Amino acid sequence: MLKQYSYAERPDLIKQVRDMIRRSWPKFMLQDPIADRLWERMEDEFANFQFTLSDDNDRVVAMGNCMPFVWDGTPEGLPAQGWDGVFQQCFRDKDEGRPPNTLSALQAVVAPDQQGKGLSRLVIEAMKQIARQHGLTRFVAPVRPSLKSAYPLTSIDRYVCWVCADGAPFDPWMRVHWRMGARVIRIAPDSMTITGRVADWERWTGMRFPETGPYIVPGALVPVHIDTEQDEGCYVEPNVWMQHPPVSE
């Protein structure tokens, strides 16, 4: 039986969480400047919205990050930048004293040896429970389509239209949300922007970038654009805003 703990309840488990995150993502995905700037503040000021799922031995097998913010309920009212945008809006709302009405998922991670057991669905259910506990009626997610990295040359607009025979999304992570009642309401074409020197990108990816141009990088949803003359690489990741049914139902 898994136990759910917030960071506020079990701060001693956060080190496990950070280790699991580092092992789960490509190195370049951990270089987002907005997340770097706000992450510790999120863990501190919104500790009740960050949680772990742990076994009887206190081993973290899955975790989730989510944030409350103000949303008017329209697709246009969602942060255009997705991940980066909701991060910033959450703190802007808090600093300006606006009571939130919506919960946004940020991240769900399952330990590699626990994948395929339905834990990702449990993480989403835990987020809905958190929304209810805080009186938030809406629940959305800037979903990172997990299989898009196998199709980096396909536009995100086309990719989200791919479906299975039963009408479910082709993408497995989108499909988890869809089977829980979520639907796509907006594309976030620049959900996260990561830049670095060419040497940084070579260190993060283990690749060489001899000339200027787009490069397909393992784990990236779209090509990384390298400019050797400017000594810069830039990755702009698209996500997909999905809205779940009202959490009160």
Residue share in β-strands:
25-35%
Number of strands: 9
Mean pLDDT: 96
Name the structural class: alpha+beta
Compile the SSE list and pairings:
Elements: E1 3-6, H1 14-24, H2 33-45, E2 50-54, E3 60-69, H3 83-95, E4 102-110, H4 119-133, E5 138-143, H5 156-159, H6 172-179, E6 183-196, H7 198-205, E7 213-215, E8 224-227, E9 232-243
Parallel strand pairs: 4-5
Antiparallel strand pairs: 1-2, 2-3, 3-4, 5-9, 6-9, 7-8, 8-9
Structure described in brief:
The protein has 249 residues and is of the alpha+beta class. The protein has helices at residues 14-24, 33-45, 83-95, 119-133, 156-159, 172-179, 198-205; strands spanning 3-6, 50-54, 60-69, 102-110, 138-143, 183-196, 213-215, 224-227, 232-243.
Note down, in words, how this protein is organized.
By secondary structure, this protein is α+β, with helices and mostly antiparallel strands. The chain has two domains: 3-191, Aminopeptidase (3-Layer(aba) Sandwich), CATH 3.40.630; 196-234, no CATH class. Helices cover 29% and strands 27% of the residues. It has helices at residues 14-24, 33-45, 83-95, 119-133, 156-159, 172-179, 198-205, and strands spanning 3-6, 50-54, 60-69, 102-110, 138-143, 183-196, 213-215, 224-227, 232-243. The protein starts with a strand and ends in a 6-residue tail after the last strand.
Name a few traits of the molecule.
249 residues, 9 strands, 7 helices, alpha+beta, Aminopeptidase, single chain
